Amino acid sequence: MNLQQLRHFVAISQFEHYGRAAKALYVTQSALSNSIRRLEEELGVQLFEHQGRNVVLTPCGKSFVIRVSSILNDLDDAVAEVTVHARDEEKPVRLGVVAALMRGAISGLLNSYRENTPQQTTFDISLKGSTKECIENMKSGILDIAFCGKPPASTGYNWAPLFPEDVVVAVDRNHPLAEKDAISLVELREYRQLSYREPSYMYYVFQGLFKEWGLEPEAAFEDEISALSVTSVNKDAVSIMLDTVRDVMWNSLKIISIEEFDRPFHWVGMMYRDEDSYPKSIQAFIQQMEKVSESVPWVTPIEDKYRPED
User: How far apart are alpha carbons 100 and 228 in whole angstroms?
Assistant: First the structure.
């Protein structure tokens, strides 16, 4: 049992609907269902029962939600008090993060940093849907640092690579290609194709790729999480996208590798200004992330071949 499961439980009890609760929590409905299933298995009781399209608490669920809500409220109050105290002592690091990294990659980095440094650092995280949005908010001074794709050289920002990402194909489990673990780009010409739309940065990068391989995908989504939903609805199509969703992959979908790509297509890293422009607390964080970057074996991404001009 963990806090995430308990928060999921309380949210569903409030909305009485898995879909609406999932939307409010920014998680997929399948992930939410799995979370509650594991909680019920551990408790050995049923917490919800279905009433049409809605769900309502069982008697056990009603009793449990009263205690859990009280505990979570106390916890949130405690966290708020600590956060306010920390901000009084130190300016928070304002981070911008592209959507693909919000689930696990960034939280792992930040938790590791806090656990291994004596200095207490507060992170103010702002979700930015694209690299372009991160760059704009860096320029306007809203962000101190951004975790995103590599910015154009003309922006003048530093950038330390951290996470390589591949391009993959997502299909419905009943799609003819679902039996494959890898596929050639040439084969995709025979099927209806979906991919990124503006203003996603990958929309512009993929234009050269699609032209070279004779692909003509429909502009259908702006990020990988949205791509899952689009793919699940368009069961006859193949979605060409970055591989950032394996940890939240739906059972109804299949991820297929691309045979022509023998190295990462794209990198996500840390974008930042010159270190001496930051307070010492932020400089320490940047230096730690630079060390992490140095430990990651760099491979020139395929993206460089198709990267649009600055």
Answer: 13
